[in-house]
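FIELD: query
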Amino acid sequence: MVVVCRPARMDDLKRAEEIVVASINELTERRGFGKMASSRPPNFQAFSLRDDTEGLWVADDDGEIAGFAWSWVCGELWFLAQLFVAPDRQSDGIGNELIRKTFAHAQLRGASIKALITFTFNNASQGLYIRHGIFPRFPIYMVSVPRDRLTSRLAAARLHLEPMNMKTARFDELALIDANALSVSREKHHRYLLGDSTTSAFTIHAGGEYVGYVYISDGHIGPLAVRRPDLVGPAFTAALSFAAESSSPIISAFVPGASEPALKIATDHGMRITFPMLLMSNRQFGDWICYLPRNPGFM
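FIELD: result
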């Protein structure tokens, strides 16, 4: 049978998530990092599909899903959240067809910025993206530390966090912070996170000034964004202090290599690099000193 790339349906997402997990683990095990991915409910994928049906595609081989691609758009930014092919089908040309579909999505939505986050050691994918005009910019490090080790290193936070929910969120202020950090507004993604019962949301304050936001879930910090580069270190410290009060045994975050203040705070608090990733884009955008991503799919 001929493999057909078709728009994804809700009932495809669970199987697509299984293929993504298998593909990631095959790659990371082959590169000596061991298994890194585990299956999670495809909640953000489902949100994205409801928001924009043109952004999710599956490679269908007579009813069996052999590959999955997922991209989302916010304003000028098109972001390739996932593109994976089943490990035993990676020489069948499926990836090229899926990436053609995703780039058509970017063109359809008029996005001038194209970006993604991939594994630093995934040289085959990097070559594919470079051929399509998306180039490496800087590393993004997954960092983590056992909570008990972090607790012994914490200093008094200079900034303070205040809980945020759908009723108290000031979306105009969030849009300004995101415009500074990422060059686009991500209001729909704030609404998604604020509706996620597993995630705690906070605004960040310096005295009476509202200077940023952060989301924390199961000990993982991110996304985090602030108005100015001098605030990212104190904001990350405040987030670490809150995360350390949870019951999560491991505290983690994704820290851009472009954000020297955040990297210094991470190392000062005993956080170690778990694995390296890479931001790629067709052009420079945003101020990545001021932004810590949530994960490679959400950005």
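FIELD: remark
The longest helix spans residues 13-30.
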